[in-house]
Design a protein that fits this description.
Number of helices: 15
Number of strands: 28
Strand content: 15-25%
Structural class: alpha/beta
Distance between the termini: 62 Å
Shape: elongated
């Protein structure tokens, strides 16, 4: 909760009351709650603000007991005007609407809050100090991701416990650490992530995406982070806002970027906004209605309007109230929330959860808000969809009728399913590796497919090594595909040590603890000594390709030229004006020769190829011999 400085007017500040700008809050009866007469401010959203945004308007939601029995005044501050104080249908919530002029200096606003009834003994006057900070100039803003970055997705509760003292924080719902429970909290935290930054750098990682780290003070299953109960605070069991900012700063010093996971669709039902709500904040607030989970209805020209509305307005589960982004106060709240976190932590980007489920007009508006202020910000939205065409409609695309959509990139499930099939299903005309060939051929649908986040697995689907039937050659093929195709590649924690798990029984089976992340763990797989020989083989394979992705521009920003798979072998080239890479992947169970003349348009002018895994340099001959189920990345040399 956000407790700001509240001081009783028993000082000389009372002398200035006559100069205040005053707006009286009318009495509203609906949803009024009788609360003990204490002088507490419970929540102020945003808790502070920044001067220098393009939009001069700021709407502060003030949640304080019996606030509608008070009048609120703003002490004179150069460049800041209070337009009005709007009431809500809740006795404990109001909206303070300000206009901040350009070139306003940073400083502290003072709101004087007095009872409407002067003779009330139950209520006392108080002040609220509200800080305005200077917004970062563009030169100070963190850079976004490029296709030559490699992101590492961390499930914070299960990665590393760096601070035991915060394991059992005094929350409203005391969910104690229990590493034996699948859906219990295990104690991973920000200090643990910070302690492993050098490990991640050594692996070749350049960016981190953490599953949500804001407060999830829920009685059950709070470990996953997607039922937030305070959007402006880091969960104390992970750390604090200060520790999150320090983590981001340390990452920047080490050349790492931070992606925050955000959820504009819903919150946890123990969030204060669900307890002290205003009319219109949530969809289906009075009667629970579940979404139909039919994301394609957003784009389906034949979808029944009721089906489309149910997808957007229905709740995910009973414990996740669904925001109504059409409500102007919720729209303002979310706009300001996501601008605020970028400034607070100097983020490089956002991953947006459940992107097809909020109101899409609002989501396009949010893209405008964020990207107009932070043009280098990386944004990709989760679109868990099985078809490339439908997936592409949510982003900037080349599809008639969907030109208005402004999301830069998606979490590319279409490519994920193709990668998985290439490593788990037999080769065929459209199957196996040719599924990747076909999926890449559909890139004409996107304005910029390089902004899609590509992945082999994540916290919601089965572990990739399990999908690959624990076949190390198939695993290497998948890692090679991920790190040599277009997009923003992302690796789920533990993939480098061949962690396994399937989601048939529960998603928790793909969220096991990283061995060695807790004091007393019997093995420490953060070190070579703690890993098996096969795990070290996998770790080295990934490290080499991660570093190649970063150091070879062609593997990231380069164009793609691909050749359809033949006889179990799929070949494609990544190339820039000054660099050319050849990727060859085989599903064949036996040694295979490929005829190099097929690729002469790409190899013309080059005489040698260098295997980046082994360093071996070979003269380009008539044939290239491939090992059974071999995966190769070659640099072409003139």
């Amino acid at each position: 909760m956000h407790f700001l400085c509240i001081l009783m007017l028993k000082s000389i500040k009372a002398l200035f009351l006559t100069a205040l700008l005053t707006v009286i809050i009318p009495n509203i009866s609906a949803h009024n709650r009788v609360m003990p007469p204490r002088k507490n401010v419970y929540h102020v959203a945003p808790p502070h603000w920044y001067v220098g945004f393009q939009n001069p308007n700021l709407e502060i939601i003030l949640h304080a007991e019996n606030i509608q029995q008070f009048k609120i005044s703003l002490a004179p501050y150069p460049g800041v005007l209070m337009d009005t104080v709007k009431p809500s249908a809740n006795n404990d919530v109001c909206y303070i609407q300000l206009k901040i002029q350009p070139n306003t200096a940073s400083g502290v606003l003072t709101f004087n809050i007095e009872p409407k009834e002067k003779r009330s003994k139950a209520l006392s006057s108080f002040t609220l100090n509200y800080e305005l900070k200077a917004k970062r100039v563009k030169e100070q803003q963190a850079p976004g991701l490029t296709p030559n970055d490699v992101t590492y997705l961390i499930f914070p509760d299960r990665f590393c416990n760096g601070e035991n003292d915060n394991d059992n924080e005094n929350m409203q719902y005391r969910v104690k650490v229990d590493r034996g429970g699948l859906k219990s909290r295990h104690g991973g935290d920000l200090a643990g992530v910070k302690s492993k930054l050098d490990y991640l750098k050594e692996l070749g990682i350049t960016a981190l995406w953490l599953n949500p780290v804001q407060t999830n003070d829920q009685p059950e299953e709070s470990f996953h982070g997607y039922a937030i109960t305070d959007n402006y605070e880091i969960d104390p069991r992970f750390g604090s806002n200060k520790e999150y900012i320090e983590l981001c700063s340390e990452m920047k010093r080490k050349g790492l970027k931070m992606i925050m996971d955000i959820i504009p669709n819903h919150i946890g039902d123990k969030h204060w906004m669900n307890q002290y709500f205003d009319t219109g904040w949530f969809n289906y607030k009075d009667t629970y209605v579940q979404t139909n989970f039919r994301a394609p209805t957003v784009a389906d020209p034949h979808a029944a309007p009721s089906e489309r509305a149910l997808n957007v307005d229905g709740w995910f589960v009973t414990t996740m109230p669904d925001y109504n982004q059409r409500n102007p106060h919720i729209a303002n709240y979310l706009d300001q929330l996501y601008l605020w976190w970028i400034e607070v932590a100097n983020l490089s980007g956002y991953r947006i959860d459940t992107y097809p489920y909020p109101d899409q007009n609002y989501m396009n508006h949010l893209m405008d808000v964020l990207l107009s202020e932070y043009p280098y910000l990386t944004i990709f939205g989760e679109t868990w969809i099985n078809h490339t065409t439908t997936q592409a409609t949510f982003v900037k695309n080349n599809i008639k009728g969907f030109e208005k959509n402004k999301l830069p990139g998606v979490t590319d499930f279409s490519m994920c399913w193709a990668f998985q099939e290439a490593c788990s299903k037999p080769f065929g005309w459209t199957e196996g590796l040719n599924r990747v060939y076909i999926t890449q051929s559909e890139d004409f649908l996107y304005q910029d497919p390089y902004k899609n986040c590509t992945f082999l697995d994540n916290h919601d689907i089965s572990r990739f090594y399990s999908i690959a039937n624990e076949d190390i050659d198939a695993w290497k093929r998948g890692i090679t595909l991920l790190l040599t195709t277009r997009g923003l590649p992302c690796i789920y924690y533990g993939t480098e040590i061949l962690m396994t798990g399937k989601t048939e029984k529960s998603d928790a089976y793909v969220r096991f603890d990283f061995p060695g992340g807790w004091p007393g763990d019997p093995v420490n797989k953060f070190t070579p000594k703690g890993r098996t020989s096969k795990e070290n083989e996998a770790w080295k394979w990934m490290q080499t390709l991660n570093k190649a992705r970063v150091s070879y521009p062609a593997l990231g920003i380069g164009e793609t030229t691909q050749y359809s798979g033949i006889n179990g072998v799929y070949t494609y080239f990544r190339h820039t004006e000054n660099q050319r890479m050849m990727i060859v992947l085989s599903q064949a169970e036996t040694t295979t020769d490929i005829i190099m003349s097929r690729f002469s348009e790409m190899t013309q002018g080059y005489t040698k190829i260098k295997n980046i895994q082994t360093g071996e340099v070979m003269i380009i001959k008539e044939k290239l011999t491939l090992a059974p189920k071999g995966s190769y990345v070659f640099e072409l040399i003139k």
